[in-house]
Amino acid sequence: MAEPQTPARGDFPTIIGPDAAFKGELKFEKGVRLLGRLEGLVESPGQLEIAEGATLEGDVKAGNIRVDGSVKGNLRASGKIQLSASAKLEGDLTTARLEVAEGAVFIGKCVVGSDAAAKGGPAPRMDDAAKHAPQPVKK
Amino acid sequence: MEPDSTRPVLCTHCNGENLVGKRAMSVFCRHCRKRLILEDYRINTYHSVRLFATCGDIYVDRTGQVISPIRVRNLTVQGKVKGDVEARGRVEVTGTGELRGDITAPLIRVEEGGRIEGFCRIGALPDNWLRAAFPVK
Q: How many Å is the maximal CA-CA distance in chain A?
């Protein structure tokens, strides 16, 4: 699976400023850097960056997501989710790759795996290990 | 006992602090009187117990499979783990690793290809979170 391209740090075509508050449904192609407050649904094949001090309340479906601020809602990424040291995430997370820095806080259900992100559902169950368990001797 | 030859460990049952010898392999908790394992483990076969608890580290090899709740300092998963994990340090799932169960840890790292599924409490959480996750019976 081709991983969505990660834009460089200052290469975001759209920036929601620190004094802006957005409420509603947001769709974009390349990348958005959130410095203010966003409440609602976000959908994109590109990158979403939630900067330090920014807050997001709602569900996100994107290519790559980087969290430096605080998020209350579910995140789903086809590529990678990065939680930096200042990140606070309260909600479920589904992604192919996960990077959590020391100091980040995350509380919620987590599904990580390439299949999980592609299918959009929970990761496939691992082989039922119980069948390999030693069987009791029948008398 | 000289201070240099001791190290502090937290009880895997009651979270009480104990000062133990650096070479000790197990002690009895001075708070709850239960036995504490201090060794590191490397698992490369099937391992299923009611509770897999150690104050050391657990390393699950590629061929290893652990079916059990785990209380540990650091956990590295290259194989498969099924069970709730409470770590006082770091949980690391490598590219071949698979972890199914709830995770409580200050730090987690999942390499590309690694899989995890479960409820996570990651970060410097208050001690009562750990107590709530694993109440002393």
A: 75
Residue B38, Ramachandran bin (φ over 0: left; ψ between -120 and 50: alpha; else beta): alpha
In this predicted model, what pLDDT tens digit does every residue of A98-128 receive, in sequence order? 888 888 999 999 999 877 666 654 433 444 4
In one-letter notation, the amino acid at residue A29 is E
- B57: number of CA atoms within 13 Å, CB side? 12
The residue among B77 and A30 whose pLDDT is bigger is B77
- CB of A86 within 8 Å of a chain B CB? The answer is no
* Segment holding A128, helix H or strand E: none
Mutate to test the interface with B, among A84, A107, A132 (most CBs of B within 10 A): A107
Identify all chain A residues contacting B97, using CB atoms and an 8 Å cutoff: none
